[in-house]
Design brief:
Elements lengths: L1 E7 L2 E6 L9 E10 L2 H9 L11 E8 L13 E4 L12 H4 L22 E5 L3 E3 L6 H4 L2 H14 L6 E5 L3 H12 L4 E5 L3 H9 L4 E3 L3 H11 L5 E6 L6 H9 E9 L12 H5 L3 E3 L6 E2 L2 E2 H10 L9 E5 L4 H9 L7 E5 L1
Parallel strand pairs: 8-9, 8-11, 9-10, 11-12, 12-13, 16-17
Antiparallel strand pairs: 1-2, 3-4, 3-6, 3-17, 4-5, 5-7, 14-15
Helix pairs in contact: 4-5, 4-10, 7-8
């Protein structure tokens, strides 16, 4: 099959790769849509060692085959969104899996069956396949994964219904958090954006207000919008450096909630006096899981199908798999106006 593989820093090559392998518990899926995530761009910019197989985890597709032992509702030909990271790789038997926390699975598989979503085929455990309602498109299906991250942040973070919310960052995860918080009961959502096209999209997706100001200006904006009190819940979706976290302290009200979604690969200095003095509750959600008896994927799919999360508006560019090199270049260069770049197959 054909797959897009990183061969060096900012080098993507489309070539013939081996079909994904798997055991008796796995299903084979033809990839129909897949998205380039910010977490794909970090190694794109900085990883020199060539990969042996295609990556990519924002995936939807068509089931080609199921295990002979499978006795569930799925059938070949069904269209599905895939959880490739958590349920797709978890053992299903350890204490974390049984408690609905597959991301924390101890024996979690390290090699994802020889393929991710930047390929024609992918293989995963059937438990990680979520059927798409008939009124959902495959493109929407490939956006279930990033929406589920926003859903998990809101649900695991414990955002109360009726909260005023501030979202720091307006990339894919920031915009998905905007959609999730609105759909789950936020009364107002104020977004701090970096790029003009992100700010414009945040407005179209229902943000109460959007600012592109620096840290001090953003703090003043949110305080003005909340009658000088600050937001009930603040979501950090940028990662990478400390300024965004320290900004969150200044956007939150006393005894407010701060939810850190961004990834910080290196230790960073963070001011802990403010959150301590203001009794802030700080939560670090990761990926998705089961909360209150429901998987975040199921909640995300319901939001999209019901029209409460128009995720398709995030897709700014579409490419065939053969044009993967250009797709990554566009996704990495925000001057192109890119938000979400999709492979459509």
């Amino acid at each position: 099959m054909r797959g897009a593989v990183q061969t060096g820093i900012e080098q993507i090559e489309v070539r013939e790769v081996g079909e994904p392998t798997g055991d008796a518990s796995t299903a084979l899926v033809r990839v129909r849509a897949s998205g380039i995530c910010g977490s794909d761009l970090h190694p794109y910019h900085g990883r020199s060692a060539p990969r042996q197989y295609p990556e990519g985890h924002e995936v939807s597709g068509e089931i080609l085959s199921l295990p002979s032992s499978y006795d569930g509702p799925l059938r070949p030909g069904d269209l599905v969104a895939l959880d490739t990271i958590c349920l797709g790789l978890a053992c299903g038997k350890c204490a974390h899996c049984l408690a609905g926390r597959p991301y924390h699975c101890g024996p979690r598989l390290k090699t994802p069956y020889g393929s991710g979503g930047f390929a024609e085929l992918i293989r995963r455990r059937t438990v990680g396949l979520f059927p798409l309602p008939t009124n959902m498109t495959l493109e929407q299906g490939a956006l279930v994964e990033p929406l589920a991250i926003g859903v998990h942040a809101v649900r695991y973070g414990g955002m109360p219904v009726g909260s005023t919310v501030a979202v720091v960052g307006a990339g894919t995860i920031g915009l998905m958090t905007l959609l999730a918080s609105r759909a789950l009961g936020a009364s107002a959502v104020h977004v701090v954006a970096r790029h003009p096209h992100q700010a414009e999209l945040a407005k179209k997706l229902g943000a109460t207000s959007v600012t592109m100001a620096d840290a001090s200006g953003a703090s003043a904006h949110v305080l003005e919008q909340t009658d000088g009190i600050g937001a009930d819940a603040v979501f950090e979706t940028v990662g990478g450096h400390t300024d965004s976290v320290n900004l969150c302290w200044n956007l939150a009200r006393h005894q407010g909630l701060v939810v850190i979604l961004g990834i910080f690969p290196e230790p960073v200095p963070v001011n802990l006096l403010k959150p301590s003095d203001w009794e802030l509750k700080v939560v670090f959600p990761e990926c998705y899981s089961t909360v209150d008896g429901r998987n975040d994927y199921d909640v995300a799919i319901e939001m999209i199908a019901d029209g409460h999360a128009p995720v398709e508006k995030l897709v700014t560019h579409r490419f065939a798999l053969e044009n993967a090199r250009e797709a990554f270049r566009v996704a990495a260069d925000k001057s192109t106006g890119s938000v979400k770049v999709h492979f459509v197959m």
